[in-house]
Design goal:
Its EC number is 2.7.1.217. It catalyses: 3-dehydro-D-erythronate + ATP = 3-dehydro-4-O-phospho-D-erythronate + ADP + H(+); 3-dehydro-L-erythronate + ATP = 3-dehydro-4-O-phospho-L-erythronate + ADP + H(+). Strands 9-10-5-11-4-1-3-2-16-17-18-15-12-14-13 form a 15-stranded mixed beta sheet, sandwiched between helices. The protein is of the alpha/beta class. The protein is 36% helix and 21% strand. 55% of the residues are buried. The model has no long low-confidence stretch (mean pLDDT 94).
């Protein structure tokens, strides 16, 4: 039975969380979609949903169904994972899903912390920073699906919930786990449903995790999960596993990268790849035709597949994304890119690709769905937040990368290039 049951609102976020837990010595399996049968054996099971941009009712219903499956399997604690940029809309889905989970677990309170200092996401006085910039000045204000124009997480979350939101400030967090626990208890007793908890270092995240050892529900990014394996170990529930927690089968097959994210980080990675690897950039605005774009990519890649990765990107800067959305509508534009890359992935795997990197949460969801992947065993980390994983079906190594994650050379580093 799993010790920790996790619900992630997108596929790359699920992998990011699983990676954090594996580094802490827990075995982890990522399940694609709401489980309909017995869960795989692992210390942590992460249910990966495509609920970040889904209609609110659908996101809530799927998250509750995932929670029920995890509780039925014996999970002792539930973790609701969202992005380290807290991206959503004023209507949700972070607040509505968290509200539903608080009610289901009858816990009355949960902390909220998206910080991931290793990747530049920190929370200070309730404000989310990306590097040295406030969230709303980081480029996230131009996100095509979930533009973030307010860095104050108390305000953002308050607009999404009928509960109230308090703050555990930096000065308290600096004092350690006991002070954090006391502050959260005080907020709960005063009627607050949520606490935004400041964190600017990994030491803060470890202390927050320790303080939340008895919580039925934790919400946040993957960073706040850093302290959870130690809680289970201290309770005598988790053995020392070390590197064995990340063991995967040997890698085989051709190497490829598919990029659908339009984040600054992914655009920079594509720019680097142009000078170091075979790279094709599809112009979806010029040719908004799924079959034509797929054929173009496959014809181009046929004689280039091998040990070194080929990079196929349908990413674009904000102005091109906006133009495509204006032409097709936001949902159709996103679906077009997802369909194109999912079809390319299917054909590449059929043609011998056994090692595949996918950049972008929505793109990753579309790819794993098209490939019929039902679960992923989590392996070693490539860059912070991004591990290799292995899908028994179809026998494929996958790295599902959040658009915002990874060094500039990530697409080559993943394959040891």
């Amino acid at each position: 039975m799993p010790l920790l049951g996790c619900i992630a609102d997108d596929f790359t976020g699920a992998t990011d969380l699983a990676n954090t837990l594996v580094k802490g010595g827990m075995t982890a399996v990522q399940v694609i979609g709401v489980p309909t049968g017995p869960l795989p054996e692992a210390d942590a099971v992460i249910v990966a949903l495509k609920s970040r941009t889904a209609p609110v009712r659908e996101a809530v219903a799927e998250s509750l169904a995932a929670c029920e499956a995890l509780l039925a399997a014996g999970a002792r604690q539930i973790f609701f994972k969202y992005c380290s940029t807290f991206d959503s809309t004023d209507e949700g889905n972070i607040g509505p899903v968290a509200d539903a989970l608080v009610r289901r677990l009858d816990c009355g309170f949960a902390l909220a912390n998206p910080a991931f200092p290793t990747n530049g996401r920190t929370v200070y006085q309730g404000h989310l920073f990306v590097g040295d910039k406030l969230l709303n000045e980081s480029g996230m204000e131009n996100h095509p699906l979930t533009p973030m124009r307010d860095a104050n997480l108390l305000r953002v979350l308050s607009r999404q919930t009928d509960g109230t939101v308090g703050l555990v400030p930096f000065a308290t967090v600096e004092q350690g786990a006991a002070a954090i626990r006391k502050a959260m208890t005080g907020l709960k007793e005063s009627g607050r449903r949520y606490a935004i908890v400041d964190a600017v270092t990994d030491a803060h995240l470890l202390a927050i995790g320790e303080a939340a050892a008895g919580h039925a529900l934790i919400t946040g990014g993957s960073g706040v999960a850093m302290g959870l394996p130690a809680n289970f170990r201290a309770a005598g529930l988790l053995p020392e596993r070390g590197a064995a927690a990340a063991e995967l089968p040997p890698m085989r097959g051709h190497a490829a990268v598919l990029a659908g994210s339009c984040s600054r980080a992914t655009l920079g990675q594509i720019g680097y790849a142009r000078n170091h690897a075979h790279t094709l950039e599809l112009d979806v605005l010029a040719t908004p035709d799924v079959a034509a774009l797929q054929q173009q990519a496959l014809d181009w890649a046929t004689d280039k597949l091998g040990e070194a990765p080929v990079v196929i990107a349908a990413s674009a800067p904000p102005e091109k994304v906006q133009a495509l959305q204006a032409r097709l509508g936001r949902d159709k534009a996103g679906a077009l890119v997802e369909d194109v890359l999912a079809g390319i992935a299917e054909a590449l795997v059929a043609g011998g690709v056994g090692r595949l990197v996918v950049a972008g949460g929505e793109t990753s969801g579309a790819v794993v769905s098209r490939l019929g992947v039902h679960s992923l065993r989590i392996g070693a980390e490539i860059d912070p937040g991004v591990p290799w994983t292995f899908a028994e079906t179809p026998g494929l190594h996958l790295a599902l990368k959040s658009g915002n994650f990874g060094a500039r050379d990530f697409f080559l580093k993943a394959f040891g290039q």
